Amino acid sequence: MYSFTLIKKDKASSGRVGSITTPHGEITTPVFMPVGTQATVKTLSPDDLREVGAEIILSNTYHLFLRPGHGLIREFGGLHGFMNWDRPILTDSGGFQVFSLADLRKISDDGVTFQSHLDGGAKHFFTPETAVEIQEALGADIIMAFDACIPYPASRDYAGESLERTLRWAVRCREAKKDTGQALFGIVQGGMYPDLRKISAEALVDIGFDGYALGGLSVGETKPMMYEMIEASVPSLPEDKPRYLMGVGTPEDLIEGVDRGIDMFDCVMPTRNARNGTYFTSFGKVVIKNARYERDQQPIDPECGCSTCRDFSRAYLRHLLNAGEVLALRLGTIHNLFFYLNLMREIRQSLDQGRFREFKREFLAKRENKD
After folding, report:
1. CB-based contact 134:61 (threshold 8 Å)
2. Which is catalytic among the residues 10, 259, 266, 301?
3. Cβ(196)–Cβ(222) under 8 Å?
4. C-alpha dihedral sign at 269, 364, 188, 25
5. Mean pLDDT of all residues in the chain?
6. Residue 266 known to be catalytic
7. Of 1, 16, 169, 236, which residue is least crowded by CB atoms under 10 Å?
8. What are the CA-CA distances from residue 134 to residues 61, 79, 97, 145, 229 (Å)?
C-alpha cells in the first residue's frame, strides 16, 4: 500500500520529482507538509487545507499521546476519522518534543522518562516500542522511528553517543512495527559533524526503512552549516526512497533543500508567522502591523491566487489583526500556506521542465530586490 516512484532527476542539480503512494492517496514530491500538531492545522478546517492544496499534513505523537490519548483516537478510526481528513498524514515520533523538555526528562538506553507539561508533571515513559505503538494507533500513513535528539551546540562525544543510541532505537522500532501498511522512516542524526552524519545515514540504510529523514537541523546552526549536513547525508541515502528534512524552513531553505536532493519538508513557520501578522510573498515578507499598510488597498501579494489575496486588502488585514479578530489568523494562515504549497508546485514544474536552477536564481533575486 506504500511505495515511492522516482519520476525525474534534474540534470543541473540533485533535485528530483517523485510520487509517494499511501493508503490515503498520492503525494507528489518535492512536497511541503503543513503542521497539524494537535490533529488540526491551527485556524483551518480540512476543507481549507484542501483548498490551499495540501497533499499531506503532519501531526505530533507526543502531544496527541498526552491529549486526548491515542486510545481514544483509535476508537475513531485513527487520525483520519477523528479529524475528518481523507488525505495522507505523517506523525513524528515525539522525540524532539520529549528531548526539548530538558529538566523534565531522563534518558537511558531503554527509553526516556519525562514529565508532562500539561497536568502538573505526571511521569511517562517513552521507548522506541511505545513510539511505534502510539503511531500505529494514530493510523498515520507515514510514521517515524524514535530518535535521540541533541541540542546545538553539542560536543562530538555527545553527538556520537546520541547517534549510537538513535541507531539502537531504530533497530528496535523496525522490530516493533507491525504489518499495518504504514511506512516507517529512519532519522539521520550526528549533530553538526559531517562524518557522523554519513555514518548515521549508512547505518540506517543497512537497517532498512521505507524512507529517511534528516533530524537535528534548524536548531540554531548557521544556514551554511545546515546545508553542509544535508550534503554530508544525502549521498549515502538510496535514490529509490524519499528523503525528508525535518522542521525546515524558510522559502529559501526549501529551494536549497530541493537543490541538494530533499523530497519532503515540514515547518511551523508559515502558520506561526501568519498568526503574528507576518506574511510570505514573492518579493519578501510583509509585516502587516506596520503603519505603511493602514490605507493600502493592495492584497498581501498581487501575484498570489489564494482566496485571501483575491478578496481582502492589506489595510483590512491590518485592521483585523490590530483589533484582535480571529479572522485575521485564519486569512493569514490561508495565504502563507498557499504561498508555500504554490512554491512547491512551481519547484516541481521547474524540475519537470529542466529549468530548476533558472527558477532558483529568479526566485532568490526577486526576494533580494523586495518591495
Report:
1. yes
2. 266
3. no
4. positive
5. 96
6. yes
7. 1
8. 7, 11, 15, 12, 30
Extents of the domains making up the chain: 3-267, 276-368
% of the chain at pLDDT higher than 90: 91
**pTM exceeding 0.90:** yes
Neighbouring C-alpha atoms within 13 Å toward the C-beta of 130: 16
Three cell numbers written together for 99: 528531548
Q: Which of 10, 92, 253, 301 is catalytic?
A: 92
* Residue 221, all three cell numbers: 546552526
pLDDT at 356: 98
Would you tell me which CATH number, out of the four given (3.40.50.1000, 3.30.428.10, 3.55.30.10, 3.20.20.105), belongs to the domain 3-267?
3.20.20.105
Q: Reply yes or no on whether the pLDDT at 48 is more than 50.
A: yes
Contact predicate 95/127, CB 8 Å: no
Residue 93's DSSP bridge partners are none
Helix (H) or strand (E) holding 27: strand 25-29
CA 97/CA 32 separation, integer angstroms: 21
pLDDT tens per residue, range 142-176: 999 999 999 899 999 999 999 999 999 999 999 99
Report the DSSP beta bridge partners of residue 33: 266
DSSP class of residue 14?
S
Cell of 12: 543541473
Spatial CA neighbour of 118 closest among 74, 65, 71: 65
The SS3 assignment for 9 reads strand
Cα distances (Å, whole numbers) of residue 266 to 18, 45, 110, 180, 341: 17, 18, 29, 24, 11
Half-sphere exposure (Cβ direction) of 339: Cα atoms closer than 13 Å = 31
Among the listed residues 345, 289, 287, 280, the one whose alpha carbon sits nearest the alpha carbon of residue 309: 280
Phi and psi at residue 27, to the nearest 5° = -125, 125
Is it the case that residue 338 has pLDDT exceeding 60? Answer: yes
Q: In 273-330, at which residue ranges do the beta strands (DSSP E only) sit? A: 278-281, 284-287
Looking at residue 371, what is its pLDDT? Answer: 43
| 263 DSSP β-pair partners | none
